[in-house]
Amino acid sequence: MRLSTKGRYAVMAMVDLAFHNRGNPVPLADIAERQEISLSYLEQLFGRLRKGGLVKSVRGPGGGYLLSRPATDVRVSDIIMAVDEPIKATRCKPGSPAGCRHNKARCLTHDLWEELSNQIYLYLSSVSLDAICRSEILGTSGVFLRGAAEPREAEQLLSAAQ
């Protein structure tokens, strides 16, 4: 399964917003610069995030975006679903009794991929923006980085792991 740029960028931008939110609106231009994402692309994503009830916009000088609820209550799955990113590993249409094969039958591995989709959704539903901002979600790179004394040493450890 592959998460598209739309989903990844939306999560990156929302984490940036949560991290830099000091009670004041955060301009999209600042998020675009920090995350190296096109401003026009962010505007499209934030339109969807606003419609999804995850952010609210503030117009005028000093304007920008704020989270519409605390970062502890915003889940990664909420963000991905708000930008219309499906969380699925099957070729079949979600919720359809028909399978993806030419005769509408399900393939032998359908239930495997459907359960993988469910597990991914459950995991993403368990991760809040706050947990990411507080570095509570660490992959294997976090294990290596915690053991490194210097940034250069951390870089060498990451290179060796790949």
Care to describe what's here?
This protein is mainly alpha-helical and 162 residues long. It folds into three domains: 1-85, Arc Repressor Mutant, subunit A, CATH 1.10.10; 87-127, no CATH class; 136-162, no CATH class. Helices cover 52% and strands 5% of the residues. It is built from eight helices and two strands. It has helices spanning 5-20, 28-35, 39-51, 76-82, 110-126, 129-133, 140-147, 151-161, and strands at residues 55-58, 64-67. The radius of gyration is 19 Å and the shape is elongated.
Briefly say what this structure is.
By secondary structure, the protein is mainly alpha-helical.
The CATH class assignment of the largest domain is Mainly Alpha
Tell me the name of the CATH homologous superfamily of the largest domain.
Winged helix-like DNA-binding domain superfamily/Winged helix DNA-binding domain
Kindly name the structural category.
mainly alpha
Strand order, largest beta sheet: 1-2
Unreliable spans are none
Rg computed from alpha carbons, rounded to a whole number of angstroms: 19 Å
Assess the beta-strand content as a share of residues: under 5%
Q: In the CATH classification, which architecture of the largest domain applies?
A: Orthogonal Bundle
What would the principal axes of the Cα set say about the shape?
elongated
Report on the biggest sheet. 2 strands, antiparallel
Report the strand count. 2
CATH topology type of the largest domain: Arc Repressor Mutant, subunit A
Average pLDDT taken over every residue: 82
Pattern of helices and strands: HHHEEHHHHH
Number of helices: 8
Tally of distinct domains: 3
